Amino acid sequence: MPGGANDTELFWQLLVQGRDVHTTVPPDRFDLDAHFDPTGKLENSTDTPYGNFIDHPGQFDPGFFNMSPRENRNAGLVFETTPWLKQEGKKRYAIVNSFGAHGGNTTLLLEDAPEKLTAKTTLSDHIKTHIIAISAKSKASLRGNIEDLLAYLDQATPENNLLGNISYTLVARRIHHSRRIAASVSNIDQLREFLKSSLETSDDSIWADMALTIGKHLYKRLNPGAEEVDMNISNVEVLESQIPHNYNSVNVKPQLIQVEGDIDLAEASTEISWYTLTADGNRSDHAFASATVYYEDAKVWQAQMVYQLFQNVVDYADRYQGMQSVVLHGLEAFAEVELVADHHGSWHTPPHWIDSVFQMAGFVMNSSDITNTREFFYITPGWQELRLAKPLEAGQSYQSYVHMFPSEEEPNTFLGDIYALQAGNIVGVCEGIKFRKIPRVLMSHLFSGGSKQPQPSHVPPEKRGGVQAHAEGRIMPVKRVQSSHKPAAIHTHESPQPSPVSHHIPDLSPASLPDQTPKTTPTLEVTTKGQDIEAKQQPEVVIKCLGLLARETGIDVKDFTDDASFNEMGIDSLMSLVLSEKLLREVGVEVKSSTFLECPTVGEFTEWLTQYH
Fold this sequence. Notes:
By secondary structure, this protein is α+β, with helices and mostly antiparallel strands. The chain has helices at residues 8-17, 32-35, 69-72, 123-126, 139-155, 162-171, 188-200, 205-222, 298-308, 351-358, 360-367, 443-446, 540-553, 573-587, 595-598, 602-612, and strands at 23-24, 50-51, 93-97, 107-111, 130-136, 179-185, 231-238, 256-264, 269-277, 289-295, 323-329, 332-338, 376-382, 385-388, 397-406, 413-422, 425-439, 467-469, 475-477, 520-521, 525-528, 531-534, 538-539. The chain has five domains: 2-111, no CATH class; 123-200, Alpha-Beta Plaits; 205-296, no CATH class; 300-445, Roll (Thiol Ester Dehydrase, Chain A); 520-612, ACP-like (Non-ribosomal Peptide Synthetase Peptidyl Carrier Protein, Chain A, Orthogonal Bundle), CATH 1.10.1200.10. The chain has 16 helices and 23 strands. Strands 11, 12, 13, 14, 15, 16 and 17 form a seven-stranded antiparallel β-sheet that branches. Strands 7-10-9-8 form a four-stranded antiparallel β-sheet, covered by helices on one side. A two-stranded antiparallel sheet has the order 1-2. Helix 13 crosses helix 14. Residues 100-104 and 449-535 have low confidence and may be disordered.
């Protein structure tokens, strides 16, 4: 016996104590090298070299278990394929124990093994019903799984036990997700009918129709004079799918549903719940679906939806949101516009009125599905002419039309004319409005006047930027303070002074720089691609910048030699913009994208960093 347990007392002590008596496979049993496969993928293989083995099978007889001769007739050890004879009218029983094989101790009680199938008999003749269960993490995935199975049934060749194989594949050792359907079927036709009916109910539009019907009915009961009822069906949750019965079948049972609505005019809403009913009218304890209907003004959310499409570039204040509805097709659009009643100041023509009437061009360029708004945004530098045939009036309705087209003379530029109409007459026109395509990575640079962009920590306060944003969002010039440091004669030429409102690098000419010695670090470890690379003696700012360039380009820092070319590394104009933005945000170094053109090699770039930072 395993572990030297040569009698029942020792054997049960091993089981009670849980002792590990695993040993490797005895060489005389079988060739372990030929059958051992730790992955368990090979046929007729074992994934472990250990097990519990009977040393002397002859000792493991009925006498070992102190069995009586009568018990001896019904017990035995199976060491080879053994027929299991059946007596007429009697059931057969068997106990199979793993005896701790593979670390387990499993016992199975088998009752009357199935009959051997003849050539004319299939498993389907014995098993009349099969469970079919399909599940997925989402409603769309569940529908896809159902459609895939239907497609498989249409092309599958008839075979023995096709339904049983499908049932085993869908049920055995499967993780069943929250979205699921299940049924018991007896043949392929029933399975196909079940799947098709499931697809018919996978759309929740039937619940939406019920919610709209009940919501409108309850609202008009309390407000009989209401003509139109604008509703928003929210928080819809179907916990249990409802599979409709096939009413072409014989003896089909009625399928009853009860819908309950509870209206609250104070909250302008109705709570709706769905229940199942039995044939005798008993309602289920819990609702299988629920929803909330809110009563609201459709014009309000229609206008809001229009400007939500615009939010990828700019947020509009309420008084600028004059467009009530928009029809958009490519680079052409038509809008209904309603001006707000308030002037919001003393104006000849309030700017929020002008913008509402003539903002369609910007909407088209920044909302159309053909202008690649993921990577670019569009801004206007101006227009040629703007005319109004009559003054714009508060609270009046207008129509706006625009058609934009690419410019043949200027690349990355679009042109167009915007027309304002009222009662079918043209009352205003904006001719030759121009929009330019700008990489989205530049947005923070172009619109950073009122935002809190990071400033390089190494630049003196008097050199940080040329503008100052006030609380009201107005941008005021800032007087520059001349440095008290003496010029350092490094170059033989003079660098031009930047304009007071420049958003780019402050004046970096030698004459304006403080007399500072770059901070150096004797040795600094730079980690790139999982490797520790020892950098040469360089200023810390250089090491940080090169580390960022290596990370963004995917090039090892060791390859950033002095003669390495940025152009050969793939740093083009777009990559330069990205690197410029990230160097400012992560390292605090303000680098113009053109610097990679002015300093085309790593050596020139590091020299520029060392000298000016």
